[in-house]
């Protein structure tokens, strides 16, 4: 099975180390362009653009990067309860048309009550999923060309319609991740691809089985994806050294404050991420080559695959054997790590690459030449 490999745009910040300003980088449009163009040229199928008050707006970032990329797809966030589903459908169709069919959408219900309240959303966890189901039903039908009347508990529309359709038919695919029972029910009914964060394979297999069974009960099939960080190097020792270096500036107080902040989330997925490490750095390898160090201070995806190319590829194939066909990777810093992943990991996987542009570039059979017109002696004498 060919795998879809995506990269990540760090619109919330980037750097060499976690939890410190040392080695941090200013994230501006130029830097995001560098990462997007690297991902585009290296053969990543798309980029995930995060959402939330700590991030630049994902829709505006995607729109700004359309003209500087060629094949890269943009996975942007839909926020139920914060925007009208009809307006969101119009925006989605526009982004799809302007990008010539390169738009993908990620349904994000949110898990931080404080942030949601700041955006005017005051629903509890169960109510948010109720509203998300209503939002998605309307959004899908409007994008598919229907005129929609809907009288729900949270959302009511009358005569909702779209005049300018998307390029992708019947509409762009919908991605979604959530670990609660309500989230799995939504995925089974509504989405094309269910995403999980990088839990150990046994836990991921259990979630996949649950969603697959729920979808089958509705006569549907759902694809599966996983969100992971990657630390890949030429040797396993180098990779584990790089993992240790990534958190080398973290002290116990920083970890404790980060975990206290994340504890207010009512996201089941975030709770499962936190349970992998328990806020402690002494047992971070939670499955073979699966390292939970990122989650000590980062919300959301908190695990990384660590190792050399063949080792990380073996772990990727274990997840693929569970039914996962889409992998959304990231690494710090994101520009350099995109090259490492493409150069050290891609050769060991069956990667589904977008059609490559003809760049006219080449790789010298002798590597970098020390001077113009100078060949190695063995070649000059042959």
TrEMBL record:
GO annotation (BP), single: alkanesulfonate catabolic process
Gene3D superfamilies cross-referenced by the UniProt entry: Luciferase-like domain
InterPro entries found in the cross-reference section: Alkanesulphonate_mOase_FMN-dep (IPR019911), Luciferase-like_dom (IPR011251), Luciferase-like_sf (IPR036661), SsuD_RutA_monooxygenase (IPR050172)
EC number(s) recorded for this UniProt protein: 1.14.14.5
Enzyme class: oxidoreductase
Gene Ontology molecular-function annotations: alkanesulfonate monooxygenase activity
Domain Luciferase-like span(s) in chain numbering: 5-325
Keyword Flavoprotein included in the entry's annotation: yes
Top-rank lineage group of the source organism: Bacteria
Keyword Thylakoid on entry: no
Reactions performed catalytically: an alkanesulfonate + FMNH2 + O2 = an aldehyde + FMN + sulfite + H2O + 2 H(+)
Keywords, sorted A to Z: Flavoprotein, FMN, Monooxygenase, Oxidoreductase
Biological function: Catalyzes the desulfonation of aliphatic sulfonates.
Similarity comment: Belongs to the SsuD family.
PANTHER family in the cross-refs: ALKANESULFONATE MONOOXYGENASE, ALKANESULFONATE MONOOXYGENASE-RELATED
Record protein name field: Alkanesulfonate monooxygenase
Record organism: Pseudomonas xantholysinigenes
Origin organism lineage: Bacteria, Pseudomonadati, Pseudomonadota, Gammaproteobacteria, Pseudomonadales
Gene name as annotated: ssuD
């Amino acid at each position: 099975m060919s795998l879809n490999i995506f990269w990540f745009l760090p619109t919330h910040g980037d750097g060499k180390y976690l939890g410190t300003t040392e080695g941090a980088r200013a994230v501006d449009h130029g830097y995001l362009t560098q990462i997007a163009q690297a991902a585009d040229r290296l053969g990543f199928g798309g980029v995930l653009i995060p959402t939330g008050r700590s991030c630049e707006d994902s829709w505006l970032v995607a729109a700004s990067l359309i003209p500087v990329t060629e094949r890269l797809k943009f996975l942007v966030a839909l926020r139920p309860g914060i925007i009208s589903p009809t307006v969101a459908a119009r925006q989605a169709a526009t982004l799809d048309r302007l990008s010539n069919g390169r738009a993908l959408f990620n349904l994000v219900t949110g898990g931080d009550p404080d942030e949601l309240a700041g955006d005017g959303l005051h629903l509890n966890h169960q109510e948010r999923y109720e509203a998300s189901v209503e939002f998605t039903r309307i959004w899908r039908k409007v994008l598919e060309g229907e005129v929609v009347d809907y009288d729900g508990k949270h959302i009511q529309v009358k005569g909702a319609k779209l005049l300018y359709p998307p390029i992708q038919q019947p509409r762009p695919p919908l991605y979604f991740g959530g670990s609660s029972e309500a989230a799995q029910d939504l995925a089974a009914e509504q989405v094309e691809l269910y995403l999980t964060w990088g839990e150990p394979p046994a836990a991921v297999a259990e979630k996949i089985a649950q969603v697959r069974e729920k979808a089958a009960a509705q006569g549907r099939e759902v694809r599966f994806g996983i969100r992971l960080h990657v630390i890949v190097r030429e040797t396993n020792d180098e990779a584990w050294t790089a993992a240790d270096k990534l958190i080398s500036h973290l002290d116990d107080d920083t970890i404790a404050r980060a975990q206290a902040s994340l504890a207010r989330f009512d996201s089941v997925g975030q709770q499962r991420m936190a349970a992998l490490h328990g806020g402690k750095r002494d047992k971070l390898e939670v499955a073979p080559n699966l390292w939970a160090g990122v989650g000590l201070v980062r919300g959301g995806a908190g695990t990384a695959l660590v190792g050399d190319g063949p080792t990380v590829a073996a772990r990727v194939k274990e997840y693929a054997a569970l039914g996962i066909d889409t992998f959304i990777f990231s690494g710090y810093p994101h520009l350099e790590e995109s090259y490492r992943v493409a150069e050290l990991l891609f050769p060991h996987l069956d990667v589904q690459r977008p059609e490559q542009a003809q760049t006219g570039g080449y790789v010298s059979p002798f590597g970098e030449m020390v001077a113009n017109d100078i060949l190695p002696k063995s070649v000059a004498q042959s």
